[in-house]
Design a protein that fits this description.
The protein contains 16 helices and two strands. The chain is mostly helical. A two-stranded antiparallel sheet has the order 1-2. A hairpin with a 2-residue loop joins strand 1 and strand 2. It has one domain.
Length: about 400
């Protein structure tokens, strides 16, 4: 009974996470800090990859929302992605697991990056192009030093993490027991697991953030990510693996565990740590690379603390209140992967279509979010109705 409750909470949490992803991308065109004019398509450092469309309507509330999501959301997604990895490895073996991952992650990733991204990003080129024709766009696209993956960079990195997990299972299967043992006390003492996770994250994140700065990105092929974060994401992925090894119903995610019962303090911790991080970030951004090393170190440690606090808060919140069955949540959760694959196409084109519409930023963002949700949800459900679609992104129930 407990396991089904934990699974239901995770199912609902997955639905909310995809809504957050869509919300973040829907508001990017309306951030207050954006420059007055759009970024040029073929001008390094290609900042349009983060904010493809720049609208004249802005709202600073979207900046705060996106800043909070930037702190924890991707790390949280890697954590959730790791929960069922080790049981799948035990059931299928390394090679069977990798065949499944390359089919379920690799093939949709290739199709989305090659087919969807050139269509999705065409409006970005048109905003500053002298010749806006598709032929000129394709020429400029091929001259880029990388192939823009859009949000599919997450799947690139996730596939690499799954390969690492399969290698560990093949060469050192005892690693699963070690990861599980680290999560064994999380039911009664989630703060212990929080401390271990925060320390591990700090050890791999802070040195890279000091070397490269938290805002430096690297682009090659279909990969792009912040140079300071890949090992940080790896820590969260294997934290999820460890929780899954020990058991969803008897570890950190136990419905009667202390994390679920004491969600309130985690809310306070998430709020205070985020406030600390954003305050230090504002101070450091004024000085850029000339900021004192002590301030940079404090900023990076605050990021690590805010990330872990927000992740624990969301898990606690859904373990406590997210155990209710809903037909809409079930469908949204089942289609979350498909929605993630196709939603960017609708987001960018809708933001482009609304550029000259006389509406406030909040209204535009609401329109983009609503239509994107309906369209990407419908497309995902339609794809899953075909045999080949069900193999790639999940069968209909």
């Amino acid at each position: 009974m407990r396991a089904s409750g934990a699974s239901l909470a995770l199912n609902n949490l997955r639905a909310v996470v995809i809504l957050l992803v869509l919300a973040v991308h829907s508001v990017l065109a309306y951030l207050d800090f954006l420059p007055p004019s759009p970024y040029r398509f073929d001008e390094p450092p290609y900042r349009w990859q983060a904010t493809p469309i720049v609208d004249s309507q802005r709202w600073v509330g979207f900046d705060l929302f996106c800043a909070w999501q930037d702190v924890y959301l991707m790390s949280f997604m890697f954590f959730l992605s790791g929960l069922f990895v080790w049981p799948s490895l035990v059931r299928k073996g390394s090679w069977g697991f990798l065949r499944d991952r390359f089919l379920r992650i690799g093939l949709p990733l290739v199709l989305a990056v090659i087919l969807l991204m050139p269509i999705a990003l065409y409006p970005v080129y048109r905003l500053t192009a002298i010749d806006p024709s598709p032929a000129a766009y394709w020429q400029h696209w091929r001259e880029l030093p990388f192939w823009p993956p859009g949000p599919q960079w997450f799947l690139c990195v996730l596939l690499a993490f799954n390969v690492i997990a399969a290698g560990l299972y093949k060469l050192a299967p005892q690693c699963g027991d070690l990861l599980g043992s680290l999560a064994s006390s999380a039911r009664a003492h989630p703060i212990h697991y929080f401390i271990v996770l925060t320390i591990a994250s700090a050890l791999v994140y802070v040195p890279l953030a000091l070397i490269f700065s938290p805002w430096s990105w690297i682009y090659f092929g279909p990969f792009n990510f912040q140079l300071s974060r890949p090992l940080h994401y790896l820590v969260y992925f294997f934290a999820g693996v460890g929780v899954g090894v020990y058991g969803l119903d008897r570890g950190l995610l136990a419905l009667d565990g202390n994390l679920a019962r004491r969600w309130g303090p985690w809310l306070v911790a998430a709020f205070i740590s985020f406030l600390l991080w954003i305050s230090l970030t504002a101070l450091n951004m004024n000085d850029g690379d000339r900021a004192p090393i002590g301030m940079q170190l404090a900023n990076d440690l605050a990021f690590v603390l805010a990330c872990a606090s927000s992740c624990f808060f969301f898990v606690a919140l859904f373990l406590r209140f997210g155990q209710h069955r809903s037909r809409w949540y079930d469908s949204l959760s089942e289609n979350a992967y498909g929605i993630y694959l196709v939603h960017y196409l609708f987001v960018v084109w809708l933001q482009y279509a609304l550029l000259n519409v006389a509406l406030f930023a909040f209204a535009k963002a609401a329109i983009v979010f609503g239509i994107t949700l309906v369209m990407s949800w419908s497309v995902s459900a339609a794809i899953r109705g075909f045999p080949w679609g069900s193999r790639l992104i999940g069968a209909k129930r």
